[in-house]
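Here is an idea for our session: we take a single protein and study its fold together. Which protein we use is up to you, so please pick one and set it down. Once you have written the record down, we can walk along the chain together:
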Amino acid sequence: MTQSVFPHRHLLGIQGLTPQHITMLLDLADGYVEQNRAADKKKALLRGRTVINLFYESSTRTRTSFELAGKRLGADVINMQVSASSVNKGETLIDTAMTLTAMHPDVLVVRHSDSGAVQLLSQKVDCAVINAGDGSHEHPTQALLDALTIRRRKGRLSGLLVAICGDVLHSRVARSNIHLLNIMGAQVRVVAPRTLVPATMSRLGVEVFHDMREGLKGCDIIMMLRVQNERMRGNFIPSIREYFHFFGLDYEKLGQAKADALIMHPGPMNRGVEIDSDLADDYERSVIREQVEMGVAVRMACLEVLARNYTGGTA
């Protein structure tokens, strides 16, 4: 891949990408899905390149899939355990950036609890940077893997009606998905309690519903979100039991959507809170397992494109 095809040095968010950029990444990832199902899963495209995973927040799915993606492309992959690093000794984000730059990595994959931290880091390093989630801001590779999952099942993104349900207020996944789905011509609804919807949400070009059954009517895709208790400061929901009663997805509420509607969740799931456990495991309707598989393929595509764009030094 060349910069004329994907002209961005970093992948910090979905905003700023065109339909052509998104389609190119999804098409490339599609090929990696088949490679990952083959007996020989490795390629040497990124041999000699170095990928550093720098995660300031704990993660299983995202960090592991980035590690696997880098290794399957032949890159040297380093996982930095921030909890055991100099950060706990008072090293600042900028100090860390300077240290990493001296190691001459090709791609830096960063997750951070503060919105905007990854963009700041990208301005201080010479290599390509991928945002693996920053605060409540964006999580671009999650939106891309969700889009790939939908496209492979439905054959398209344009014209679909997608409901994003749950803790939208604290969700970077919701924001990235809203941006991507709008860019690709889908219609987006947000379904959540009033306390979990940002006041500015309607400006993002979505319909807002506070009744689950109304919000799911006629939907092609139902994307459930995790209740992020760790980000809540105050009483956003009265109780877990009451939240599930009104906003948890079960078979009765699902009946309002189209008969072939697909169920998604970025994980990790709180079973019995956001989604009924049996429904989450209903592989005729749920594509949650497929989302995990698509994550490796999408991250391989992003690593390949950005590593090939980065040729060393400054851009």
Q: What stands out?
A: The mean pLDDT is 91. The CA atoms of residues 12 and 290 lie 24 Å apart. The first strand starts at residue 50 and ends at 55.
